[in-house]
Model the fold of this input.
Amino acid sequence: MRSVSPSRWREAQAHELDFWRNWRDLAPYRDVDLDAYWRGEIPKFGLTPEFFAGRTVLDVGCGPVGLIHFLPQASRRIRFDPLLHEYQNKLPSPGFSVAGAGEQLPLVSNLSDITICFNALDHMRDPAAALSEIARVLRPGGTLLLMIHTFPAWTMPLLAIDRLHPHHWTHSGFLDRVARTFRVVRSHRERRVFPMSLAERLKPSGWKYTAAGFVLATTYVVAENT
Ligand SMILES: C[S@@+](CC[C@H](N)C(=O)[O-])C[C@H]1O[C@@H](n2cnc3c(N)ncnc32)[C@H](O)[C@@H]1O
Done:
């Protein structure tokens, strides 16, 4: 898992900001009910909402509308993202808001009971450094919840065209990397399907979601900090 240059990361982040400025106009996201969406993601980790009750939860790479905003049962919530100050339409703070990069978390060690890193590690400059930092800030025995998009090995040479993501993994490559820092408790992969009508798929703006639907998977990992 190599790191990318600061300029490559800044390029990806510019695309990221652009995405979040326009996401409600994009066909797959136009009608997303965020509350229902996040309620549907928690069982994919084999968990129920009660798992978060009374816990300190940190969301690294939370984005403007991440899972951390939908966990009122947690006792303490910390949202963390380098673009936090740039996001115009972000949800109100769920507790603590910290802007910065996951490669160097400005947080004390053993702080969180649960750390979420959802669809964010492949956006980072140095994912290996971020995993080490996440391990430092998560208490021993604490739980890391990871979600990442994964691809078949044959697509890897083609994915350099994806400027939004500096990194791409296969499902097994990702699990191997996580297992170097954490104990993987559970993982599963499912096809990524974009909810769009056929008419939307046939538009020039829809082709990439249709193509991605053939190769893209979503990998969910529950890991324990040892
Ligand atoms: C696709 S968004 C996911 C947001 C949110 N987790 C969600 O699922 O809605 C990826 C997020 O990762 C953040 N990110 C990029 N580089 C990062 C880094 N080095 N450390 C922490 N977060 C980073 C981006 O700013 C962006 O908000």
